[in-house]
From TrEMBL, chain A:
Occurrences of domain Zinc finger Sec23/Sec24-type (ranges): 157-195
Domain (Gelsolin-like): residue spans on this chain: 696-769
Residue ranges constituting the Sec23/Sec24 beta-sandwich domain according to the UniProt record: 483-566
SUPFAM superfamilies cross-referenced by the UniProt entry: beta-sandwich domain of Sec23/24 (SSF81995), C-terminal, gelsolin-like domain of Sec23/24 (SSF82754), Helical domain of Sec23/24 (SSF81811), vWA-like (SSF53300), Zn-finger domain of Sec23/24 (SSF82919)
Highest taxon of source: Eukaryota
GO (cellular component) term, any one: COPII vesicle coat
Keyword Transport included in the entry's annotation: yes
Name of the featured protein: SEC24 homolog C, COPII coat complex component
Species in which this protein is naturally found: Neogobius melanostomus
Domain named Sec23/Sec24 trunk: residues: 234-478
Taxonomic classification: Eukaryota, Metazoa, Chordata, Craniata, Vertebrata
From TrEMBL, chain B:
Protein name (record): Protein transport protein SEC23
Record domain Zinc finger Sec23/Sec24-type: where: 64-92
Annotated organism of origin: Neogobius melanostomus (round goby)
Limits of the Sec23/Sec24 trunk domain: 121-385
The protein's role, per its UniProt record: Component of the coat protein complex II (COPII) which promotes the formation of transport vesicles from the endoplasmic reticulum (ER). The coat has two main functions, the physical deformation of the endoplasmic reticulum membrane into vesicles and the selection of cargo molecules for their transport to the Golgi complex.
Compartment(s) where it occurs, according to its Swiss-Prot or TrEMBL record: Cytoplasmic vesicle, COPII-coated vesicle membrane; Endoplasmic reticulum membrane; Cytoplasm, Cytosol
Membrane topology label: Peripheral membrane protein
Length: 827, 734
C-alpha cells in the first residue's frame, strides 16, 4: 500500500516558475466565453492575467482521479478486515468486501485520518481535519451479515460506570474477569454476575468470540424500558401521508399519481420480518388552505372527511380511525385514494399552508403516542394566512454579496420551534416538493433537515417525464429501513472529544444528536478535537451508539466502535489520510459556513486550510527540493482537484441560472451525504461507452471536455443526475443500436429512458444505467445530451476539471493557484 | 249584558287576551292604588280555525295601523291612537257602508294578513347533537332524529352539527365521502371566523375588479343546510353511522363536551347564511358542557355541578362566565330571528341554568328528561312537529310583536319568551315591568300557546278626567313567518271602558279577572326571582297581594328553589312564562281529581285530606301527571281483583284515571312526567310534596285517627297561612 511506503511521492508538476505557474495556462476552452480571472474566484491577491501560456501544462501530468481510483481498485483484491488498528480502508469507489474483526466496517464509519496526531499542537500544525463520517444504519451488501442483536436481559446493556460506554472489544477484563477496565475513560467497573466469564491465558474472555459485543465492531443491543421515552415501551411507528390538493398539485398530475401509487405502496411498508405484515400504521391528510383529515376505520363503508379550517391553532379532529392498520382498512383506504383525485379535480384553490400541515401530523402522532414519519407532498410557497406563512424573498441581487447568507437562513423562527417539537415526539418529516416557482426551500427544509428527514424536489413536475423518478424515490423512501426517535452519542477515549456534528438532525445540547428519524442513507459527520494528549500505545477510540425504535416498534441500540492509531510524527498522519472523507467534511463545513459568512469568505477559508495542510506536509515531511516543485502527499494528491469541485459547486459559486431554491436544496441535501455520495457528487463518474463487451464497467475518464470524442457516446453520473452524451459524429451503427435510429439529428433528446432494443449494446447500457440507479439513494432521470445541443450547457457544468460557466477555475488553474498559496505559506 | 265571566271567556277565545282589569281606572293615582297593574296575557298566535287570513296588505295609518273611524264619503279615516287623518288607499275605492273590508267588521277585532311582498324563505332546522352519550341513549336519539326527518316539510332546510370533544359541522350535499368541518371545542371563535372556516365567505381579495361578484344564493352555496327532500337518505345514513365521541374518557372524568362552541358554530352558521329567516336550532344534550367557552363544570367528576347552595355561597365558578357567554349567543340568535331549543336528557343537571337564556330569549323549547330513550322525550320531540287542522306546523318564526296604546296608556313591559327591540315611542312607559323600554319585542319562535304577559301604566292625570263612555284602545301587531313560509301579520285590537275609581269602584272590582291577575303577578314574581334573591321576591309578593293562589305559588318551584336543582328551577320557570292562562294556573295550583266507587270523578282540594285509602287520585301539575292509588285500592290491585270477571267495576275504576291521563298527555307540550304510583310508593312523593299539608307529623294526633295522610313537612299549611294572613291584612290596613 502506498501509505505504508516511507517515501513520499513527489509530484513535480513541471517547471512552473513564478508568474507563469498560474493564471492562463492554457488557451480558453471552446464554449466558455470570457477570460478566466483567478482573483475573482478564490480571492487571491489581484493579479493581472498572465500572458498566453508559453508552456502548456500537460493535464496528464497532474494527479488524475481516475488513476488513483483505478490503482486502488487494482490493489484491493482481498476482503478488508477491520481488526488492524489504524488501517485505512479501500476507497469508496472500489468494490470490496469487509470482515468485521473488532472495528466498524467502513460502510458504517469512515475517518479522515486513521493515524491521528497525538497532540493538539500537531493537529493544529497540520490543519488536517479529524473527523469521522458515520452512517449508522447503512445497508450492507447481501454477503455481509447485518449487525447481530445482543440481549443483555432485564438489567440492560453492560456499560462503563463512569463514561457509560457500552460493552465493546476495547473493554479490558481484569481480576480474573470479575471487573473490566473501560478503554475510553479507564474506569474499572464490576462485571455483573450474570455476565461473568473466565479469562483465558491471554486475558481474553473465554466467550469472546461467542459474543458480538466482545469481538465485533458493530452490533446492536436490545434496549430495556429505561431507554424508552417516559419509561414506556414504544408503540409501533406510524406513517402519515399529507397531500397538497391545491390547483397546481392537481393540475400537474401529482395528486393522481400519489394516490394511485399509495395503493400499491402500502403493501411495502417497512418491516423487520419479511414474512409478516408491517405493523406500521398509516393515516391520510389532504390540504390546501385548510386541512382534510380522513377517517378510514375498517368498519366504515366509506371514508369520512373531516375538514379543519382553524389552521391558526392546529389540532387533530379524530383519534380512532385516523391511524389504521393497512390490512384492516384496505377497502376504505382504496376507496379514499380513488376518490381524492376526483374530489379535488375542479379545485380552484391556489393557496396552501405548510406549517399547520406539519403540526397536524405532529399532533396526530402525539395523540397516538408514537413516533413516525410524515410524507408531505407540497407544491407552492405557503402564502395562505396561517402560522408559518412565508413571503417571497427571492432576491438574486443578493447573490455574491455579504447579505447572501440571509438567503440560507430560514424566515422567522416558527419552523425551528416546530422542528424542535417534532424531534421531541419522534416525528420525522419527508418533503416531496413540486414547485413551479420559488418556494423558499431554505425555510421549508428546516423541519425535514432537523428531523432527519429528506427533501425531494421535482421542479416543473410533469407527470409524463418525472413520474418515474418521483415514484421510484417515493417507493424507496417508504420502503427503506429506518429507525425512529433516535439519539446518537459519540464517546471517545480520553484525549479527544467529538466537538462538532454535521447532518440532518437536531441538537439540544452539545453531545446528543437527536434524530426523529434515521434512515439507511443518512450519514453524520463528526469532528473531533484534542482536549489532551493521546498515546501511541492505546490509539484513539470512538464509540458511536444510536438508540432508536425499529420499524417494528422495538427499542434498540446500535453500537459502532472504531479505533485509530495515534502518531507523534506528522509523516505518519499524512500517510493515513482519506481525501474523500476530508472532502466530505470540507463540503459540509463550507456549506454550513454560508449560513454565517459570505460565500467568498467560505471559499477563501477552504483554500487557505487546504494550502496549510499541503504546506505543512511540504515543510515537515517532504524531502527538500526546489521551491518551484509542488509536492503533494500520496494520499492527498487529489485534494486540490476535489476541493476545486467543492469550491465550484452551485452552493458556493452559483451560475446565473441556478435558483436560490436549488442551492438551498443542495446545501441541505449534501449535509447528510456519506462519503460515496459526496465523492461522486463532486467528481462525477464519466464513462465512455464505445466498448461494452466485457462484463465489467469501462474505465472512467476524467471529467473534462477535451476527453470527450466527437465519435463517442458517454454516460455521466453524479448521484443526482444521469446524462448520456452523444457525440456529433457517432457511427450510425452505434446510434442504431442505442436509439434505433441511424441519424444523429433524429435522436429525441427529450427521452427519459432508452428504447428497449434487442442488441447486446443496448442491453448492456440499460443494465449499466439500472445498476447506477440501484446504487444511489435517489433515482436519476436520464437526460440525453446531443453534442452542441443547447442542453449541453447543463452537461458541461458537470465536467468539473474544466472551467465553469459560473467562473470556477479549471483543475490546472486551481492547482497552480494552490501551488502559489503553498509557496506563500512556506516563504 | 252577559256576565264578566262570559265576556272574559269570549275575549280570550276571539283575541287570546286576558286582562287583569276589564274596566280601567281612569287616572294614574287610582291605578296605582289597585296594586295589580292594568296588564294582560296575550297569546299572539292563538289558534283561530274560524279566522281566514286576508290576502291583502293592511292599511297603515301614516303613523300606525289602526282600526279606523271611517268617513265613507270623504274617503278618509282617522287613527284611533294618534288621531291622524288618513286617506284611503286606491284599493279601497269601492268601500261603502255595505261593502266593508274585513278589518272594519266588529267581529274581526283580530285579523290576519298575508304579506305578498318579498321572497319566501324555507324553514330551517339545525340539529346540534351531543355524542357524549351512552350507547343506548345515542341510539334512541339517532332514531328520533331520523324519524323527525319524515316530519319536516320537504322543502325545509336541514343541517347537522355533532359535538363531543370536537365540534363537527356535517356537509350534506356531498356524494361518496362524508365530509364534515371540525372545530376545536375549546376555542371561542367569532361569527366571521366561523363563516370563514366553513368557507361561507368569499375572500374579497379574490374578487376580480370589473367583474361583479356573483349573487350569493345562500341556499345553493351553503353545503351545510340542504332541503330535506334532497338529503334525507344521505342524512339518515349519516345519523346511522354517528358514533359516540371516540375520545377516551379517563376514570373519574366527565366526557369533554363542547356545547358552547357547538352552539356558537350553529349560531354563526345561521347568522352568515340565513339572517332573518325562520330557523330552529335544536340542541340535544346528555350532560353539562365541560370544556371551552360556556363550560358549566370541569371534567373532574369529583367536583359536582353547582347547586343552589353553591350559588348562594358564590361557589359556582363557571356560572357567571357561562351565563354571560350563552346570553351573548342568545342575543345574537334573537337578532337574526333564530330560535334555539334545548332537549336535555340526563339524570344529573346539564347546565340549563346557564343555557336557559338561549331558549328564553329566542322562543325556543326547553325539554328536560332522564334519557333520550324514554317516551317522555320521544313523544315530546314528536310533538314539536305537530300540525294544525290545515296541515301546517304549529310553529312560527321571527315574530315581532308591537303594542300600540291610546294616549292614556303606556307600555311598561312584557314577560315571556321575547327580547326587546328597543323601539322607543310615545307609548313607552318610564316605569319598567319585565322587559320594558320598548313597544316592540322579538319573539323568534312562536306556537299557538305562546303567551306573553304585557304590563301597562295608566298615565292619565287625576285632574284631567276622561269623559264618560271613553274607551282606551290597545293594538297588538304581530308580524311573523308562518310555518308554510308565508309572512303574515296578525292584528288584534281591543278596547276597554275607562271608569272612575272613586265613583265606580264596585264596577272596577267586578271587572277584576282573578285568574289572569294571579298569573300575571306570578310572572312578575318569576321575573324577579330570576334576578333577585328568593326570600326578597317572596316578601315582595306577600306585600303586593295575597290570595289563595299565592299560597301555592309561594310553594311552587317557580319561586322556591328548595328540593329543586338550579336546572329544574330554570326549566319550570321557562315554561311558566310562556304558557297560556289555563296551563299557567295548573302550574301554580295543580289539579287533583279523585276517583271512587261512590260517584263520578270529582275535583278535590289539593290537600292531604284528599288522600284516602279507597280513592284513586289523578294530579296534574303540568310537568307531572301522577296517578295515585290509595292504600286499599293498591292492595286490591295487588291481589288482582281487576282480572276477575266479577270485579269488572274495579277494573273500570282503575282504567278511568288512565284514560283521563291519556287525554291530557295527548295535548300537553312538553310531555309531562307520567307517574303511576300507590300508597307508600316512592314516587308518591310527587303528590305529597304538592298537597296542602293540613295534616303533618306535628298535628297528626291532634286531628286524631281521621282520614287523610299526614305529610312529613315543616311547611305551614294553608290554614296557618290564612291565619297569619288575616292578622297581617288587618294590621296593615288599620
Amino acid at each position: 500500500m502506498a501509505n505504508s511506503s516511507k517515501k513520499s511521492i513527489l509530484h513535480d508538476i513541471g517547471p512552473l516558475r513564478e508568474k507563469t505557474s498560474y493564471g492562463q495556462v492554457r488557451g480558453p476552452q471552446p464554449g466558455y466565453p470570457g477570460p478566466y480571472s483567478g482573483p475573482q474566484n478564490y480571492g487571491g491577491p489581484a493579479q493581472a492575467p498572465g500572458p498566453a501560456a508559453q508552456k502548456r501544462l500537460d493535464p496528464d501530468a497532474i494527479p488524475s482521479p481516475i488513476q488513483v481510483i483505478e490503482d486502488d481498485k487494482a490493489k484491493s483484491t482481498e476482503p478488508f478486515t477491520t481488526g488492524v488498528r489504524g488501517q485505512a480502508p479501500p476507497l469508496v469507489t472500489t468494490t470490496f468486501s469487509v470482515r468485521d474483526q473488532g472495528n466498524a466496517s467502513p460502510r458504517f464509519v469512515r475517518c479522515t485520518a486513521y493515524n491521528m496526531p497525538c497532540t493538539a499542537d500537531m493537529a493544529k500544525q497540520s490543519q488536517v481535519p479529524l473527523a469521522a463520517v458515520i452512517k449508522p444504519l447503512a445497508i450492507l451488501p447481501p454477503d455481509e451479515t447485518p449487525p447481530y442483536v445482543v440481549d443483555h436481559g432485564e438489567p440492560g446493556p453492560i456499560r462503563c460506570n463512569r463514561c457509560k460506554a457500552y460493552m465493546c472489544p476495547y473493554m479490558q477484563f481484569i481480576e480474573g474477569g470479575r471487573r473490566f477496565q473501560c478503554g475510553f475513560c479507564s474506569c474499572v467497573t464490576e462485571v455483573p454476575p450474570h455476565y461473568f466469564q473466565h479469562l483465558d491465558h491471554t486475558g481474553k474472555r473465554v466467550d469472546c468470540y461467542d459474543r458480538p459485543e466482545l469481538s465485533l465492531g458493530s452490533y446492536e443491543f436490545l434496549a430495556t424500558v429505561d431507554y424508552c421515552k417516559n419509561n414506556k415501551l414504544p408503540q409501533p411507528p406510524a406513517f402519515i401521508f399529507l397531500i397538497d390538493v391545491s390547483y397546481n398539485a392537481v393540475k400537474s398530475g401529482m395528486v393522481n399519481i400519489v394516490c394511485q401509487e399509495l395503493k400499491t405502496l402500502l403493501d411495502y411498508l417497512p418491516r423487520e420480518n419479511p414474512e409478516a405484515d408491517s405493523v406500521v400504521r398509516v393515516g391520510f391528510v389532504t390540504y390546501n388552505k385548510v386541512l382534510h383529515f380522513y377517517n378510514v376505520k375498517g368498519s366504515l363503508a366509506q371514508p369520512q372527511m373531516l375538514v379543519v379550517s382553524d389552521v391558526s391553532d392546529m389540532f387533530v379532529p379524530l383519534l380512532d380511525g385516523f391511524l389504521v392498520n393497512v390490512n384492516e382498512s384496505r377497502q376504505v383506504i382504496e376507496s379514499l385514494l380513488d376518490q381524492i383525485p376526483d374530489m379535488f379535480a375542479d379545485t380552484r384553490e391556489t393557496e396552501t399552508v405548510f406549517g399547520p400541515v406539519i403540526q397536524a401530523g405532529l399532533e396526530a402522532l402525539k395523540a397516538a403516542d408514537c413516533a413516525g414519519k410524515l410524507f408531505i407532498f407540497h407544491t407552492s410557497l405557503p402564502i395562505a394566512e396561517a402560522p408559518g406563512k412565508l413571503k417571497n424573498r427571492e432576491d438574486k441581487k443578493l447573490v455574491g454579496t455579504d447579505k447572501e447568507k440571509s438567503l440560507f437562513q430560514p424566515q422567522g423562527s416558527f419552523y425551528n420551534t416546530l422542528a424542535k417539537d417534532c424531534v421531541a415526539q419522534g416525528c420525522c418529516v419527508d418533503l416531496f416538493l413540486f414547485p413551479n416557482q420559488y418556494v423558499d426551500m431554505t425555510t421549508l427544509g428546516v423541519v425535514p433537515v432537523s428531523t432527519g428527514g429528506s427533501v425531494y424536489k421535482y421542479t416543473y413536475f410533469q407527470a409524463a417525464t418525472d413520474q418515474e423518478r418521483f415514484l421510484n424515490d417515493l417507493r424507496r423512501d417508504v420502503e427503506k429501513p429506518m429507525g425512529f426517535d433516535a439519539v446518537m452519542r459519540v464517546r471517545t477515549s480520553t484525549g479527544i472529544r467529538a466537538t462538532d456534528f454535521f447532518g440532518s438532525f437536531f441538537m439540544s445540547n452539545t453531545t446528543d444528536v437527536e434524530l426523529a428519524g434515521l434512515d439507511c442513507d443518512k450519514a453524520i459527520t463528526v469532528e473531533f478535537k484534542h482536549d489532551d494528549k493521546l498515546s501511541e500505545d492505546t490509539g484513539a477510540l470512538m464509540q458511536c451508539a444510536v438508540l432508536y425504535t425499529s420499524c417494528s416498534g422495538q427499542r434498540r441500540l446500535r453500537v459502532h466502535n472504531m479505533a485509530v492509531n495515534c502518531c507523534s510524527q506528522l509523516a505518519d498522519l499524512y500517510r493515513n489520510c482519506e481525501t474523500d472523507t476530508i472532502i466530505n467534511y470540507f463540503s459540509k463545513f463550507a456549506f454550513r459556513g454560508v449560513l454565517n459568512h459570505p460565500t467568498k469568505t467560505v471559499r477563501d477559508t477552504l483554500v487557505n486550510q487546504c494550502a496549510q495542510i499541503l504546506a505543512c506536509y511540504r515543510k515537515n515531511c517532504a524531502s527538500p527540493s526546489s521551491a518551484g516543485q509542488l509536492i503533494l502527499p500520496e494520499c492527498m494528491k487529489l485534494l486540490p482537484v476535489y476541493l476545486n469541485c467543492v469550491l465550484k459547486s452551485d452552493v458556493l459559486l452559483p451560475a446565473a441560472d441556478v435558483s436560490l431554491d436549488d442551492r438551498a436544496y443542495l446545501r441541505q441535501f449534501i449535509s447528510s451525504m456519506d462519503v460515496t455520495e459526496t465523492h461522486v457528487f463532486f467528481y462525477p463518474q464519466l464513462l465512455p461507452l464505445t466498448n461494452l463487451d466485457s462484463s465489467s464497467l469501462p474505465v472512467a475518464i476524467r471529467a473534462s471536455e477535451e476527453r470527450l470524442s466527437k465519435g463517442g457516446v458517454y454516460i455521466l453520473e453524479t448521484g443526482l443526475h444521469l446524462f448520456l452524451w452523444v457525440g456529433a459524429s457517432v457511427q450510425q451503427e452505434l446510434l442504431q443500436n442505442l436509439f434505433g435510429t441511424p441519424s444523429f439529428s433524429q435522436i429525441d433528446a427529450s427521452m427519459t429512458s432508452l428504447p428497449v432494443l434487442d442488441n447486446p449494446f443496448s442491453k448492456r447500457l440499460r443494465e449499466i444505467i439500472s445498476n447506477f440507479r440501484a446504487q444511489r439513494p435517489r433515482y436519476m432521470k436520464l437526460m440525453v445530451v446531443k453534442q452542441e445541443d443547447h442542453s449541453e450547457l447543463i452537461f458541461r457544468h458537470f465536467l468539473v476539471e474544466d472551467k465553469s460557466a459560473s467562473g470556477g477555475a479549471s483543475y490546472v488553474d486551481f492547482l497552480c493557484h494552490m501551488h502559489k498559496e503553498i509557496r506563500q505559506l512556506l516563504s | 249584558m252577559t256576565t264578566y265571566q262570559e265576556f272574559i271567556q269570549q275575549n280570550e277565545d276571539r283575541d287570546g287576551v286576558r286582562f287583569s282589569w276589564n274596566l280601567w281606572p281612569s287616572s294614574r293615582l287610582e291605578a296605582t292604588r289597585l296594586v295589580v297593574p292594568v296588564s294582560c296575557l296575550f297569546t299572539p298566535l292563538k289558534e283561530r280555525p274560524d279566522l281566514p287570513p286576508v290576502q291583502y296588505e293592511p292599511v297603515l295609518c301614516s303613523r300606525a295601523n289602526c282600526k279606523a273611524q271611517v268617513d265613507f264619503r270623504a274617503k278618509i279615516w282617522a287613527c284611533n291612537f294618534c288621531f291622524q287623518r288618513n286617506p284611503f288607499p286606491p284599493s279601497y275605492a269601492g268601500i261603502s257602508e255595505v261593502n266593508q273590508p274585513a278589518e272594519l267588521m266588529p267581529q274581526f277585532s283580530t285579523i290576519e294578513y298575508i304579506v305578498q311582498r318579498g321572497p319566501t324563505a324555507p324553514l330551517i332546522f339545525l340539529y346540534v347533537v351531543d355524542t357524549c352519550l351512552e350507547e343506548e341513549d345515542l341510539q334512541a336519539l339517532k332514531e328520533s332524529l331520523q324519524m323527525s326527518l319524515s316530519l319536516l316539510p320537504p322543502n325545509a332546510l336541514v343541517g347537522l352539527i355533532t359535538f363531543g370533544r370536537m365540534v363537527q359541522v356535517h356537509e350534506l350535499s356531498c356524494e361518496g365521502i362524508a365530509k364534515s368541518y371540525v372545530f376545536r371545542g375549546t376555542k371561542d371563535l367569532n361569527s366571521k371566523q366561523i363563516q370563514e372556516m366553513l368557507g361561507l365567505t368569499k375572500p374579497t381579495a379574490q374578487g376580480q375588479p370589473g367583474r361583479p361578484a356573483a349573487p350569493q344564493d345562500a341556499a345553493s352555496t351553503c353545503r351545510f343546510l340542504q332541503p330535506v327532500h334532497r338529503v334525507d337518505m344521505n342524512l339518515t345514513d349519516l345519523l346511522g353511522e354517528l358514533q359516540r365521541d371516540p375520545w377516551p374518557v379517563p376514570q373519574g372524568k366527565r366526557p369533554l363536551r363542547s356545547t358552547g362552541v357547538a352552539l356558537s358554530v350553529a349560531v354563526g352558521l345561521l347568522e352568515g347564511t340565513f339572517p332573518n329567516t325562520g330557523a330552529r336550532v335544536m340542541l340535544f344534550i346528555g350532560g353539562p358542557p365541560t370544556q371551552g367557552p360556556g363550560m358549566v363544570v370541569g371534567d373532574e367528576l369529583k367536583t359536582p355541578i353547582r347547586s343552589w347552595h353553591d350559588i348562594q355561597k358564590d361557589n359556582a365558578r363557571h356560572l357567571k362566565k357561562a351565563t354571560k357567554y350563552y346570553e351573548a349567543l342568545a342575543n345574537r340568535s334573537a337578532v337574526n330571528g333564530h330560535s334555539i331549543d334545548i332537549y336535555a336528557c340526563a339524570l344529573d343537571q346539564t347546565g340549563l341554568l346557564e343555557m336557559k337564556c338561549l331558549s328564553n330569549l329566542t322562543g325556543g323549547h326547553i325539554v328536560m328528561g332522564d334519557s333520550f330513550n324514554t317516551s317522555l322525550f320521544k313523544q315530546t320531540f314528536q310533538r314539536v312537529f305537530s300540525k294544525d287542522l290545515n296541515g301546517d306546523f304549529r310553529m312560527a318564526f321571527g315574530g315581532v310583536l308591537e303594542v300600540k296604546t291610546s294616549r292614556e296608556l303606556k307600555v311598561s313591559g312584557a314577560i315571556g319568551p321575547c327580547v326587546s327591540l328597543n323601539a322607543k315611542g310615545s307609548c313607552v312607559s318610564e316605569n319598567e315591568m319585565g322587559i320594558g323600554g320598548t313597544t316592540q319585542w322579538k319573539v323568534c319562535g312562536l306556537n299557538p300557546s305562546t303567551t306573553l304577559g304585557l304590563y301597562f301604566e295608566v298615565v292619565n292625570q287625576h285632574n284631567a278626567p276622561i269623559p264618560q263612555g271613553g274607551r282606551g284602545a290597545i293594538q297588538f301587531v304581530t308580524q311573523y313567518q308562518h310555518s308554510n313560509t308565508q309572512r303574515r301579520i296578525r292584528v288584534t285590537t281591543i278596547a276597554r271602558n275607562w271608569a272612575d275609581a272613586q265613583s265606580q269602584i264596585q264596577l272596577i272590582e267586578s271587572s277584576f279577572d282573578q285568574e289572569a291577575a294571579a298569573v300575571l303577578m306570578a310572572r312578575l314574581g318569576v321575573f324577579r326571582a330570576e334576578s333577585e334573591e328568593g326570600p326578597d321576591v317572596l316578601r315582595w309578593l306577600d306585600r303586593q297581594l295575597i290570595r289563595l293562589f299565592m299560597f301555592h305559588l309561594r310553594r311552587s318551584p317557580f319561586l322556591q328553589v328548595f328540593n329543586n336543582s338550579p336546572d329544574e328551577s330554570s326549566y319550570y320557570r321557562h315554561h311558566f312564562v310562556r304558557q297560556d292562562l289555563t296551563q299557567s294556573l295548573i302550574m301554580i295550583q295543580p289539579i287533583l281529581y279523585s276517583y271512587s266507587f261512590y260517584g263520578p270523578p270529582e275535583p278535590v282540594l289539593l290537600d292531604s285530606g284528599s288522600i284516602l285509602p279507597d280513592k284513586i287520585l289523578l294530579m296534574d301539575t303540568f310537568f307531572q301527571l301522577v296517578i295515585y292509588h290509595g292504600e286499599t285500592i293498591a292492595q286490591w290491585r295487588k291481589a288482582g281483583y281487576q282480572d276477575m270477571a266479577e270485579y269488572e267495576n274495579f277494573k273500570q275504576l282503575l282504567q278511568a284515571p288512565l284514560d283521563d291521563a291519556q287525554e291530557i298527555l295527548q295535548t300537553r307540550f312538553p310531555m309531562p312526567r307520567y307517574v303511576d304510583t300507590e300508597h307508600g310508593g316512592s314516587q308518591a312523593r310527587f303528590l305529597l310534596s304538592k298537597v296542602n299539608p293540613s295534616q303533618t307529623h306535628n298535628n297528626l294526633y291532634a286531628w286524631g285517627q281521621e282520614t287523610g295522610a299526614p305529610i312529613l313537612t315543616d311547611d305551614v299549611s294553608l290554614q296557618v297561612f290564612m291565619d297569619h294572613l288575616k292578622k297581617l291584612a288587618v294590621s296593615t290596613f288599620f
